[in-house]
Amino acid sequence: MTLFQLFFLVFIFLVTSIIGVVTGSNSLITVPVMLEFGISPTDAIATNMFALIFMSIGGTIPFLKGDILKQRQDIPLLSILTVIGSILGALLVLIIPAETMPLLISVFMIAVLIFSIINKNKGVEKQEKSSPLMEKIGYFLTFLLGVYGGFFSGGYVTTLTATFIGCLNMTFVEAVAITKVLNIFSSLIATAIFMSQGLVDYQLGIILGITMFFGAILGAKWALKMSNLWLKRIFMITVIILAIRNIIGWF
């Protein structure tokens, strides 16, 4: 890898980490760029996942000062479901090509967009507690998305954010904060499996990870200053762009 390519990767990872704290879907941009620079698909996914650990930690730190993370009593359950799913997902990377996954996640993104348009107040205003059925659906989707998060991660946080808002009646800022915590577990588990297979480029991963750490801190501080309405607008715009991009790229 040339010095120019390294600087370009650092720039891409910095920008996506700042914005991705709110929107997610970093890997839908970062992994393809790594592939363009000649990094193999499995190595790109593994090294990107390693860097995401730093981003998730950086994105969580600003939220620790407030009460957002203290108000949810189901974070331990969501974490356990994420860990189990991530283990299964990381094992799938070793046997299933990941190139076709962005198409599936794009379909889900379009569904998220339609749901957000129909339910204007979801995620913007504080909602009543979800029904037992919707909670069960939300927990089940958390597990399934944990599998995907360990497998590829591109669009994982985006769809998880939508699940928390749609099924567990979280506001956008709550969902953004909690998905950062869960992504720490998801990335750690997946990376541990990748490391055991010798797939992580540690030198590149540390450089990109430090970049994402500081980018995520900036992004999280920015998110805390914004209203849920603006977070929703940014989220929806990103979903539209990424869904169209991935569908066109797949075809």
TrEMBL record:
Signal peptide: none annotated. It is a multi-pass membrane protein. Belongs to the 4-toluene sulfonate uptake permease (TSUP) (TC 2.A.102) family. It comes from Cyanobacterium aponinum 0216. It is found in: Cell membrane. This is Probable membrane transporter protein. Keywords: Cell membrane, Membrane, Transmembrane, Transmembrane helix, Transport. It comes from the Bacteria. The keyword Membrane applies. GO terms for cellular component: plasma membrane. PANTHER family: MEMBRANE TRANSPORTER PROTEIN YFCA-RELATED (PTHR30269:SF0), TRANSMEMBRANE PROTEIN YFCA (PTHR30269). It holds the Pfam family TauE. The chain crosses the membrane at residues 44-64, 76-95, 101-118, 139-165, 202-224, 230-248.
